[in-house]
Amino acid sequence: MLILTLILALIFPFSVKTYILSLGIEVLIFAIFAMSLDLLLGYTGLPSLGHAAFFGLGAYILAYVSSNSELALGLTDNLLITLPIVILGTALSAVILGFLALRTSGVFFLMITLAFAQMLFSIAIRWSSVTGGSDGMTGVPRPTLGIGTWHLSFTDRADFYYLVLAFFCITWFLLRYIVRSPFGLALRGIHANEQRMRGLGYNTFRYKFAAFIVSGVIAGIAGMLLSQYFWHAVPHNLFWNMSGQALIMVVVGGPGTLTGPVIGATLMRLLPNFASTYTERSETLMGLVLILFVLLAPGGIFGIFHKKR
Amino acid sequence: MTKEKPAGFNRRELLQATATVAAGYTAVPLLAACSSSDARPAKIGVLLPYSGIYAVLGESITEGIRMYLDEIGNQSGGRRIEIITEDSQMMPDVAQQKARKLVEQDEVDFVAGIVSTGVLYGLRDYFDSAKKLLICANAGGNKISRELRTPYIWRTSFSNWQPNWPLGDWAYKNVAQKVFMSAPDYGAGHNMVDAFANSFQALGGQILGMQFTPFPTMGDPAPFITEIQGLDPPMVFCFYSGASAVAFVQSYGEFGLTDNIPLVCAGFTVEEDVLPAQGTAALGALSSLHWSLLIDNPINKRFTSAYKNRTGKDANVFAVQGYDTGRVIAELLIAVQGDTSDVSRMIDYLAGISFDSPRGPFNLDSQSQNPSQHIYVRRVDEVDGALHNVVIEDLGAFTDPGDNSLG
Amino acid sequence: METLVIQTLNGLVFSMLLFVMAAGLSLIFGQMDVINLAHGAFYLLGGYIGFTMIRQYENYWLALIIAPVIVGTIGFIIEYAILRRIYGRHHHLNQVLFTFGLALVAADLIRWNWGSYVITVAAPPQLQGQVPFLGIQFPVYRLAVITFGLTIGAILWIGIERTRIGMILRAGVSDAKLLSGFGVNIQLVFSGVFAMGTALAALAGVIGAPIHSLYPGLDFEILILTLAVVVVGGLGTLKGAFLGSLLIGMADTFGKTFLPEFALFLIFAVMASVLILRPSGLWGLRGQR
Asked: What is the separation of C-alpha B69 from the centre of its chain, rounded to a whole number of angstroms?
């Protein structure tokens, strides 16, 4: 089944129109974002209302390093340099925020992640001399990859699709490995009953902290891909509407399953597109879908088709 | 915990998988076929904000385009013309998604629209890489005529520099030699302020202070009005448009500044779309723009009465820009004899398009890819019981310099 | 010097609006431990209903009464029918998700009915005009808003401190279970509190409309600031809501002109700091969950 999907994904650019290819790229990017939140929310049980902070941060860091606009550094578009910078930047922020936020729990954790994302949003939208303000940072080029004379460019849409697909696959396998490892099982244990885990001798703070950082970095990478795709980074990437969308993707798709968020991302990105030909009320539809799932199907779409024992 | 699946497929699973794949492959092209249409009508994607602070601008431009196209029977160059509208919501990423949809799914021949400078900048790379023509009907972001110029984006509106640079000069000579400036904190706001400041300071004018208000929504304008009041300048220059213009000017009046501190602004601030809501707070405001409702030429007179009959409201500069965009599209189709398949050929013809517009003579400057046009100084006065912008001086023709030498 | 005084007045106007909003949210949060992300949508709904009433009947005062009643009723129904069914281990997240979905639906329905334009609302004719103050003209309506806010604050304070219902509320904030042990129908109290909270939001919407106008997106903008007020000021206390709104309202107003780039950032930085150092807020009840 997996191999079949992979083959389909590989021939995708050749068999569909460029517009569908664009949608495919968007779905994959948001699937990475949603999966990162699932690690935090679905597996570890940490409900973050501010995950867009890392998403947008990745976008802005990449933009600042690569863009040719006069606001940015415009150093390079080579992934060998930009990717480590994005990872470092988002990891650092995750360390700081995690250190502070993980002391709280429940309601307070929700609010502090929200506050943090809003802090970043307010910097992005008001510090216009550095971030470009509400116009955002434009002129972000598509990435390249190269050492010395060997050089790959991802400017062409089909090439960029393969790059995003590669990141998606790496993320998928990496996260699958993590959640099935002892580390991942410990996370699920913390989700189920943190007290008991501590009683068993686990330093739960360290586990949560690690999950927080991994999840933040992956979200940042998704953000990086988004800014390369759209050729710009905008404050909207940091807005809590974006965090909310990610939450919906995880919850509606199926938390704690990894596949669920991918389904959720596909739904959330494609539904408004196709629904808008029939109705203008796609936002109402989304809200209602969310409400229905919260009330009736907490396992998400994935949960409906795979009844857990 | 689920058990691991045994490796390999059984026959039933293989059949299922093949069926799914086959279905997928037939469904996708089918879906695509449903959305693509036959190539005969010339399709124009109109991408404008129909929500938010600039929604009225979007509506006015659309009315202008439709009015012109209706006048010529919705056909030109031997082809029927069809319009597909999309809401940009004034957000660069939403706008790009909609642009993609228009260009790649709806397969429009070209796209027209764009109100906000931020959105225009956010779309520049897309149109440049897709090699599709964008006719910008409003957004005046200077960079599109300068360092971010691309052969695929042409304007039928103005560059933010254009109405404001001549105003700085005029204001110094006719109003005051010191000014306080106020504009929203985004590309257009900064462009407008820089242009005015450039010519104002060149004559020795002094800038007492500047405020850049949060964009897109500034919230309660009171703190900004109070700041202006505290500095008590002899003149205020500002740029606002749409709902922000209403809020700002209303507060200007509420706090009593209308009678005490002359307001000199970019014409959009007191344009016909916002004057009714602003009321007496706008009385006496001086502004500069490339058009005015009361310009005395036969084309403008015909246009304004036709617009009033059609919509029940007075025309505004955005409607004029839409109207001229409709004309440019029609002329372009005639020039290429309906053949929109070659973008470079269409671009070659664009620079040659010129006609008489409600604003006066209209022609596209090939260097800045922006119109060369007259700039008028106007004052808000009561005319036949209603407030309008009366033209008090025609400053002559201005063309965007194509570089940043003049701000 | 005069400018500072006027700016303080401007800040006070915004603070009073925030206060009415925050009182509602703090009540809901403190009483029921529910984060109502739809609170901003109720503000907007109240404002739009008020706008329609003013346009229809040309009576601002009627709108001031009717809009909160309508929205409060809607709030009551929502709590009674749906919200109370959300309980269990992850109830905070589920409440957040539910109210978030509600906010999306409400915002879109508002757009459907009233359009996506920005709507400006005029102050009532009795409150139009200016009064001369310190050499400038200060709009009467804004002074009225300050008065409204203080009056509502006083009414709420009397209601909570001096009446039997208020006593029940205060007890419920501390320990809901104990209260139901005394025979109080705690479910009804919760529905009533939610209704009261949303009615207050709608009231703020009508009062704020002539100042901020009405448009889709305003709901989230005002919600986020109200959340900051409730967090900083303190959960569950009127004093916290009042002092918190003063703090945030002044910071926002002065920040816009003195520190335009960092004002908003500072507000959220303060919010984050309070959450870490003193989660129950600066003037909140200690020993909270």
From this structure: 19
Question: Which residues of chain B does C117 touch, with a Cβ-Cβ cutoff of 8 Å?
Answer: 51, 55-56, 243
> Distances in Å between the alpha carbon of B311 and those of A110, B64, B304, B306, C206?
49, 10, 11, 9, 31
Three-state secondary structure call for residue B407: coil
Alpha helices by DSSP H, B78-139 = 92-100, 117-130
User: What is the distance in angstroms between the Cα of B78 and the nearest Cα belonging to chain C?
Assistant: 37
Residue ranges of B 195-224 with Cβ closer than 8 A to chain C: 211-214, 217, 219-220, 222-224
Asked if residues A104 and A208 have their Cβ atoms less than 8 Å apart, the reply is no
Contact B400, B162 (CB under 8 A): yes
Note whether A124 contacts C: Cβ–Cβ < 8 A: no
- Contact B51/C256, CB-based, under 8 Å? no
Query: What are the structure tokens assigned to C2, written together?
Result: 């005069």
State how far the Cα of B303 lies from the Cα of B314, in Å rounded to an integer: 10
Distance from CA of A273 to the nearest CA of B (A): 9
Distances (CA, A) of B397 to A147, B365, C242: 54, 12, 57
Q: Which residue has the higher pLDDT, C168 or B304?
A: B304
Q: How many CB pairs under 8 A join A and B?
A: 82
Q: Give, to the nearest 10 degrees, the angle between helix C218-233 and helix C238-258.
A: 120
C86, C109, C272 ranked by CB distance to A112: nearest: C272
C88: closest CA of chain B, how far (Å): 23
Per-position pLDDT tens, chain A of length 309:
778 888 888 888 887 888 889 999 999 999 999 999 999 999 998 989 999 999 999 999 999 999 988 888 888 888 889 999 999 999 999 999 999 999 888 888 988 999 999 999 999 999 988 998 889 999 999 999 988 888 888 998 999 999 999 999 999 999 999 999 999 999 999 998 888 999 999 899 999 999 999 999 999 999 999 999 999 999 999 998 899 999 999 999 999 999 999 999 999 888 877 777 677 788 888 899 999 998 888 888 888 887 654
Q: Which amino acid is at A214?
A: V
> What is the amino acid identity at position A23?
L
Using CB atoms, which residue from C10, C120, C215 is nearest to B277? C120
B91 touches chain A (CB under 8 A): yes
Helices C91-114 and A282-296 cross at an angle (nearest 10°) of: 160
A290 CB within 8 Å of a chain C CB: yes
Is-contact B168 B205, C-beta < 8 A? Answer: yes
Classify residue A254 as left (phi > 0), alpha (psi -120 to 50) or beta.
Answer: left
Spatial distance between the Cα atoms of A281 and C112, rounded to a whole number of angstroms: 8
Which chains does A contact via 3+ CB–CB distances below 8 A? Answer: B, C
ipTM for the complex shown: 0.91
Residues of B in contact with C116 (CB under 8 A): 50-52, 55
- 3-state secondary structure (DSSP) of residue B404: helix
Mark yes or no for CB contact A288/C101 under 8 Å. yes
Three-state DSSP class for residue C11: helix
CB-CB neighbors (< 8 A) of A16 in chain B: 28-29, 32
pLDDT at B308 over 50: yes
Residue B13 has pLDDT above 70, yes or no: no
**CA atoms of B282 and B259, how far apart (whole Å):** 10
Q: Which chains touch C (3 or more CB pairs under 8 A)?
A: A, B
